[in-house]
Amino acid sequence: AAPGQGCPRCGGAVFAAEQQLAKGTMWHKKCFNCSQCHRPLDSMLACDGPDKEIYCKACYGKNFGPKGFGYGHAPTLVSTNGESTTQYSDARPIAGAKAAEGKGCLRCGYEVYAAEQMISKNRIWHKRCFCCGDCHRSLDSTNLNDGPDGDIYCRGCYGRHFGPRGVGFGLGAGTLTMA
Fold it and tell me: Which residues belong to any copy of the LIM zinc-binding domain (predicted)?
């Protein structure tokens, strides 16, 4: 691959069927592991280090997290400058042809190959398109909610759009409750 275009770990070309996306960068699935302990990662577990490598949450915390008493476990904080660590990328495939009507990915309409498919209610999605229809967070089987409109949502957005309405059915500390 051209310099700066391939996998950040090995430098090789990354093809669609073998890619893993993190923070806008494409990696080989075999290279997408913690730089320190070599634990396999997914896009939900990967933390970008300041050295342009990826780490699991535990190793990121040990190497770059706060130091001192009480900080021996793996923190979930990955940004200390107050900026959001969530990044969204264009959900469309890099190349390929549009699939026949009703046959492709529900989000982008392009053909989905077996190595990159996610399935929900017998509908097929690309891994990169398998995200909340509202906030665009990546989803997996543990945080997926199928909406009545045919789209998929994270728990929070599903509750906001399709959850119960009225007194006592809100989110957060300021919610009114019936005593």
Answer: 5-66, 103-164
Within the chain, which residue ranges are assigned CATH 2.10.110.10? 1-75, 114-162
Q: Are 25 and 41 in contact (CB under 8 A)?
A: no
Q: Which CATH superfamily is domain 114-162 in?
A: Cysteine Rich Protein (2.10.110.10)
Long-range CB contacts for residues 43-47, cutoff 8 Å, separation at least 24: 43/138, 44/138, 44/140, 46/22, 47/78
1-75 homologous superfamily: Cysteine Rich Protein (2.10.110.10)
Q: pLDDT for 32-74, tens place per residue?
A: 888 889 888 877 778 888 888 888 888 888 887 776 544 444 4
55 and 34 Cβ atoms separated by less than 8 Å: yes
Joined tokens for residue 155:
């728990």
Report the C-alpha gap between 47 and 63 in whole angstroms. 11
